[in-house]
Amino acid sequence: MPSQSPSPTIRTLASGFSPDGDWPSLDDVWRAAEPALRARSNDIHTPLSFAFAELLLETHPEADPLVVRVAILLHDSGWSRVDESKIISEGFRGDWRTSDVRYLHELEGCNIAREILPGLGYEDAFITRVTDIIDGHDTRLQHHSIEDALVRDADRLWRFTPTGIGLASGWFGKTPSQYHEQLKTGTFRELITDSAREIAAAELARSVELLKLDVI
């Protein structure tokens, strides 16, 4: 991961930017998904990841913005149907990437998408594109489209923010500075697009400054 502080002009949340794409509102999907977003702090994680997805879309006009935005909105909704006592103990400990609860939350996220999207006017072919991304977003090794890549990157980018570090360090049983090392040596290498890597570097530099991660 780059050791130098990135340019403050990089368009990301830490630099004071917000997405400015001219895309249709998804408030109806947010409202339909709201009960499923109250588990595992997804009512914090998902909106932040959604914002990063929209920032990434600004630099990837070849991607279908509706697929990306709906997929990132629903990608972790399945945690709402996982035994809460197992989310941390199995989903964030040991070989967590291949834990049963990881696969289950992907499966249930696909089920939730299939339950709520038809009633909001989305066609089967579109829903399949969304569920193909949700299915395996944590457990599948490779992305299979630019939309899949952007959702995966957005899902990781929130972890580089102070909020992401604050929540995820607790999930993984680490101090913020220990989780900072995990971000640098692990999560950063998982990012797919150049845009995501630039954003991650900017976000982490700001987080180090705000959370004193180079001191404590």
Kindly list the characteristics that best describe this protein.
216 residues, mainly alpha, Hypothetical protein af1432, 10 helices, 0% strand
Structure characterization notes:
The protein has 216 residues and is mostly helical. It has a single domain, classed as Hypothetical protein af1432 (Orthogonal Bundle), CATH 1.10.3210.10. Helix content is 58%, strand content 0%. Helix 3 (65-74) packs across helix 6 (124-134), helix 3 crosses helix 7 and helix 5 runs antiparallel to helix 6 (124-134). The longest helix is centred in the last third of the chain and has 18 residues, at 194-211. It is globular and about 50 Å long. The mean pLDDT is 92.
Secondary-structure blueprint:
Elements: H1 27-33, H2 42-58, H3 65-74, H4 84-91, H5 100-116, H6 124-134, H7 146-157, H8 162-171, H9 176-190, H10 194-211
Helix pairs in contact: 2-3, 2-7, 3-6, 3-7, 5-6, 7-10, 8-9
Mean pLDDT: 92
Helicity level, as a percent range? 55-70%
CATH topology: Hypothetical protein af1432
The residue ranges in which pLDDT falls below 50 over 5 or more consecutive positions are none
> What's the gyration radius in Å?
17 Å
| Secondary structure category | mainly alpha
**CATH level-two architecture:** Orthogonal Bundle
Oligomer: single chain
Total count of domains: 1
CATH superfamily membership, which one? Hypothetical protein af1432
Kindly state the number of beta strands: 0
Strand count, sense and barrel status of the largest sheet are: none
Beta-strand content estimate: under 5%
